[in-house]
Amino acid sequence: MDDTEVINRIGALVDEEHALEKGAGSNPADEATAERLKAIEVALDQCWDLLRQRRARREMGQNPDEAAVRSADVVERYQQ
């Protein structure tokens, strides 16, 4: 997946997240929606991590295509 594909994936996930949040309105999300929102959050974290990896590899003169999606366990443990 190249940078453009990662960015497009991020955009699609954000659009879906916004649609789900808008659909719930001021009501709490049902269980299925809450699970999907959590899955989107993890997928977004993975996409952003992959994009950062690709950019860092490129900056260091390495092949960005060797960057890989890290597991949810890894990206969800990052300190903000």
Q: How many beta-strand elements? A: 0
**Rounded mean pLDDT score:** 92
Question: Percent helix among the residues?
Answer: 55-70%
What is the 3D shape?
elongated
| Low-confidence segments | none
Distance between the termini: 25 Å
- What is the H/E string? HHH
Radius of gyration: 15 Å
Strand content: under 5%
- Name the quaternary structure: single chain
Let me know the largest β-sheet: none
Q: Count every helix, treating DSSP H or I runs of 4 or more residues as helices.
A: 3
- Structural class based on helices, strands and sheet pairing: mainly alpha
Characterization of this structure:
The chain has 80 residues and is mainly α. It has helices at residues 3-24, 31-59, 72-75. The mean pLDDT is 92.
Structural features:
80 residues, mainly alpha, elongated
Task: Give a brief outline of the structure.
The protein is mostly helical and 80 residues long.
Secondary structure layout plus pairing:
Layout (H helix, E strand, L loop, with lengths): L2 H22 L6 H29 L12 H4 L5
Helix pairs in contact: 1-2
